[in-house]
Design a protein that fits this description.
The structure is a single chain. The chain has two helices and no strands. The longest helix has 29 residues. It is mainly α and 49 residues long.
């Protein structure tokens, strides 16, 4: 599984269990990793063409 997906799933589980602060931080880190990965893949595809 990809890192961003693991972070988001772990964050949601922690938020449900009761660790909302830690869970929310992990969700935001997962979203940031996802966005950075999408931007880097888009930029690398543009450079190849």
């Amino acid at each position: 599984m990809s890192l961003w997906l693991v972070l988001i799933i772990l964050g949601v589980v922690l938020a449900i269990i009761g660790f909302a602060g830690v869970g929310q931080i992990l969700i935001w880190i997962g979203v940031a990793v996802l966005v950075i990965g999408l931007i880097l893949s888009f930029v690398s595809r543009r450079n190849r063409v």
